[in-house]
Design brief:
The structure is a homodimer. Chain A is of the alpha+beta class and about 350 residues long. Chain A contains 8 helices and 14 strands.
Chain lengths: ~350, ~350
């Protein structure tokens, strides 16, 4: 579908598109409604009025400032939906509703906004969440960077599920659904920071389809966490610190694709710190691991799922790596900024 | 309370404060928790898990890009809380929870972030909403502008209340709780676009205290709307259009302060199009107006409340102004951008 506001009318976003008047109204009705249409969004109200939610409610927010906004494997619209959906999944919740707020830079091509809105709409439809309310602001050229998006999600926590970083226990094992570092390398590639084509695509995807089945089969999961900014290492450090346990990782079990490995070596990066957008860490009692793995492996986004670590009572609050050469070292939380604006 | 991260440690925001690692963690624990503390926020989870909500749920989102971030009468932190709370109020909902997402520009003084976080915390506490989840991104210097904030709110729609723009009916009257244009002129003043001191302060405030009492006394209200960007004229145009009614305004009844009137004349602006951040339009059957007004007038933010118009079956979809000199004219939705980045 072509951009509903043709180039002959408005080729670029103007400050007035964020002014709350006629142009804002046109943007909402012609562009946003066309890309995101559902009956709750179109009430023309200051907010959405939603049917009652059952049980506990999960709420999560994320702003997306990824640069560039289009990259191999996805775009900022995919990230904005999948990222927030995955955070709801990590709370053990059925993703239900999203809000969508844009901060646009004056001069943004209308066509680019349309591509992003369409990708938000398509991704939301695939996952089964509804974009029910939104906001658009425009800042002067040079005071923003093309498109920033905030998505905030609400979901219904599954009955009987209790997932929290503090529930990580000695005797648990750590699973992951596939290779690490793909998103970060795809972004660096798109920025031409890698001087050869790695062929790596972002792993951005919704984890809800797979995890809804896993949670049904294995409701006793203790922790779920998507290792985005800061990568696997930072996510596990947060969990070790919140639960007061030690986490031991097996380096040889952590899947890293050829392309990510090659690019990381050239750039001097550690894949354990590179961002992911379609990975999930599942921490659960060892005896339930096989059941979870068999469900995960039956999904395309989980076919490489495996056990990559265990939870211990040694080195409390720390993450330790057993390396391929048989030594071991402490893996800390990321300190500096490896890759700014990765999501 | 002094900034919990002293100048001797980090005087400015670095890219790494948004990297998801140690500095992000420090910012969250030392600065955000200190300014916003509540038990739901501090779970260290990817999102908040909230107790069940009763009845229908309202959800609303707003990004704030106001320039400057500090201005007479408030700052971006006040706006972010009050603006989202007021949108929930306009859905007839009890404001309950907020998410809070920052997009910071590299180099922002830490002290300024702290002032804003504290003002978010204090405003939220005054209103009785909880900030339960958040996010922080940092963009390179020159790719943002100090601080952008997104707040998304959820609330519980009051039982028996049904408020929507489409419910506006012939025979209704239009009330407002005070003078228009103060916020916009205060911002222009702060930007030194007005070359004399108008003494005008932003009207930013939460409308929940007053409106909770009004909704209790007069549950039959048809429409609530806060006339922010685009001002009174744009808000009423949206309502006229959504409901297919005509709205007639009495110019002599619309309160405009001396300072706003003076500045508007100098700048060639029409106060009907200037943004407000503490005003609400109440549209309800004429016979209920007196009861609503007497409650509104008993609150400081409503002491100037009055009837400023009526809903008719003439000029459907349009807003008409009966001027002080006895003529009448159609008042359209704002077309260009009068005041960019007013909220």
């Amino acid at each position: 579908m072509d951009c509903p506001i043709p180039i002959s009318e408005y080729e670029h976003i103007l400050l007035a598109h964020g002014g709350g008047g006629r142009l804002t109204d046109q943007l909402i009705r012609r562009l946003f409604y066309a890309g995101l249409s559902n009956e709750l969004l179109e009430s023309g109200h200051d907010g959405a009025v939603l049917p009652p939610l059952s049980g506990k409610v999960a709420m999560t927010t994320d702003s997306f400032v990824v640069d560039p906004i289009f990259f191999p494997g996805g775009d900022i619209g995919h990230l904005a939906v999948n990222g927030t959906v995955n955070d709801l999944v990590c709370c053990g919740a059925v993703p239900r509703y999203l809000s969508l707020a844009f901060i646009l830079e004056e001069g943004l091509p209308m066509e680019e906004l349309w591509r992003v809105v369409r990708s938000v709409g398509e991704t939301a439809e695939r996952v089964g969440v509804k974009v029910v309310t939104g906001d658009t602001k425009v800042v002067e050229k040079g005071k923003g960077d093309r498109i920033f998006i905030n998505t905030t999600g609400i979901g219904e926590v599954l009955p009987g599920i209790e997932i929290a970083p503090a529930r990580c226990r000695e005797g648990d094992v750590v699973l992951i659904n596939g290779s690490v570092g793909d998103h970060g390398i795809a972004i660096m590639n798109a920025r031409k920071q890698v001087l050869f084509d790695t062929g790596v695509k972002s792993d951005t995807c919704s984890l809800w389809g797979m995890m809804s089945r896993v949670l049904e089969e294995v409701p006793g999961i203790h922790v779920l966490r998507d290792p985005t900014r800061g990568g696997l290492a930072s996510a596990l450090n947060e969990i070790a610190s919140a639960s007061g346990t030690g986490i031991t990782l097996y380096e040889k079990e952590i899947p890293v694709s050829q392309g990510v490995r090659g690019a990381s070596e050239v750039l001097g990066l550690d894949p354990l710190y590179i961002a992911n957008e379609g990975k999930i860490l599942v921490i659960l009692p060892a005896e339930e691991a096989e059941r979870a793995l068999s469900v995960m492996q039956s999904f395309p986004e989980g076919k490489e799922s495996r056990i990559i670590g265990r939870v211990t009572s040694e080195n409390r609050g720390l993450v330790q790596l057993e390396t391929v050469i048989g030594t071991s070292r402490i893996v800390k939380m990321i300190t500096g900024e490896q890759l700014p604006r990765i999501c």
